[in-house]
Amino acid sequence: MRQQDLDSNHTHIFCKKNRVFIVINLLIFLTLAIVDITMVFMNHEFNHLFWFDILRYLIVGTLIVSSFMLSYRIVRQYLSQKDEYLNNITSTSQTQLQNLEKKIKYDELTGLYNDDGIKEVIENLQKESKPYTLFNIDLDDFKLINDLKGMVWSDSALKEIANYLKERSETYEVARDHEDSFVLISLNEFTPDSISEFTKSLLKQIRVILHNEIHAYLFSASIGVASYYPNEKSLPDTLTKSELALHQAKISGKNRVVIYKDEFYQEKINEVLIMSAIKPSLKNNEFYLVYQPIMDIDKDQILGVETLLRWQHPELGHINPEKIIRLSELTDDIHRITNFVVKEAFRQLKAWNEQGIDIRLLINLSPKNLLDKTLPDTLIKYATEYGINPEDVGLEITESSKLEKLESVKEILERIKAYNFRIAIDDFGTGYSTLTYIKELPIDIVKLDRSFITNIDTNYEDQLFLKFVLDISNALRKLVIIEGVETEVQKQIIKEHQIALAQGYYFSKPKKAEELQCFFESYGLINQNN
């Protein structure tokens, strides 16, 4: 029973008892008065005192009744006000509880369920043994919208996407799971084909909204899909499955849909093993470097080499380089790895210089390295230690990755340039902020991604696009290197476009330093008599 109901009952009982009390007291008074008057009659004492007693009883009786009635009214009024007060408090408390529940379960910006709210929905569905399909929708590199457009624009886009999802939510529940992701739960049955059709329309509309709201033509979304069936006992839970599928969509290039497979869970376990093995492997010298030559095709000479990281683990085997960087960023081991790469590359460059080999060196940096304020001083410290001329070293930043805190990155790169190191942008043309990076950051070298020339010998449009990018780079006075040259035809086409510098398997695969000796000799960099 609610508190106000209890208080109302107490009021009613009190008033009832008060009335009974008054009646009992009045009856006692009347009884005493009657007995007293009867005694007077029996004694035949009808003098002036008799009438005085009668008057006294009447006055006293009236006062007693009046006082009890007055006290009854006062108490009743007080308890009535108390009931009203308690009712107001209860009503206010209920409103506050409703508001608190809304804050706990609902997203303030969009009005959708939040993370806690959608988890409760999932829990209830599974208690009722209802099958469902969960779509985990994440906006690709949405952080860049905040950086480039600001919070007002990005919030507007998020609300428009939320409204679009709500309008279609008659057959499903929808939530804003994190800052730039949404969760959609449908009770409809889906086949792989119907999932493809459904998600294709979602992705298309999201791109339209991003275009209309923030004029972001190249932004997109990725979707991870997982289904739940009653009595299913497999690990992990459905929400985690959808997140693993989403993760695969992201690392596979974004702007796509991936349906969960059991191997994703095993892959996640494998990634945990890799992350835990990074520190011991650095101590055990399991990491090593390979180098891919960069050629001046006009002069038929070796200009330099790009430094590439490799890892051969005794139990996990060969680890994909991109996975090494991505996972080491999660564990913050990326700084240790970068220190290893820089020291080892500088040591090797010194050894080549001592052999009379005059070449340049390019080293890849992680986006997370570019937020390390100690990086410029670390680079010059190792350069001084190994006697390296900073002008012979270029530091590559990957254009296809998102650079957070662009102003901070720019400041660090300018400090690096102040030490006379060169700055290169890698995979140019594959990311979302190509022109922003090349315009805002102190770039010296532009490395064009292999996608520019993959079909260049058969696709005339690719040749036109290559010319367009080259015109921009040349106008901004950037040195251009093209990656991924694999055929003689490709080599001749890039020569026709007046691109002098290139690298790729046509010239040489990445090799260990000792394996490059013969390659250097073939280009006359090493005196074969030495």
From TrEMBL:
List keywords of the entry alphabetically: Membrane, Transmembrane, Transmembrane helix
Membrane-spanning parts: 20-42, 54-75
Query: Which InterPro entries did the record assign?
Result: Cyclic-di-GMP_PDE-like, EAL_dom, EAL_sf, GGDEF_dom, Nucleotide_cyclase, Rev_trsase/Diguanyl_cyclase
Q: Pfam families given for it? A: EAL, GGDEF
Q: Tell me the GO molecular function terms.
A: cyclic-guanylate-specific phosphodiesterase activity
Sequence ranges assigned to domain GGDEF in this UniProt record? 130-262
Cited SMART domains: EAL, GGDEF
Which parts of the sequence belong to the EAL domain? 271-524
Highest taxon, organism lineage:
Bacteria
Task: Work out whether the entry's keyword set contains ATP-binding.
Answer: no
Q: Which PANTHER family match?
A: CYCLIC DI-GMP PHOSPHODIESTERASE PDEF (PTHR33121), SIGNALING PROTEIN YKOW (PTHR33121:SF70)
Return the protein name: Bacteriophytochrome cph2
Name of the gene this protein is made from: cph2_1
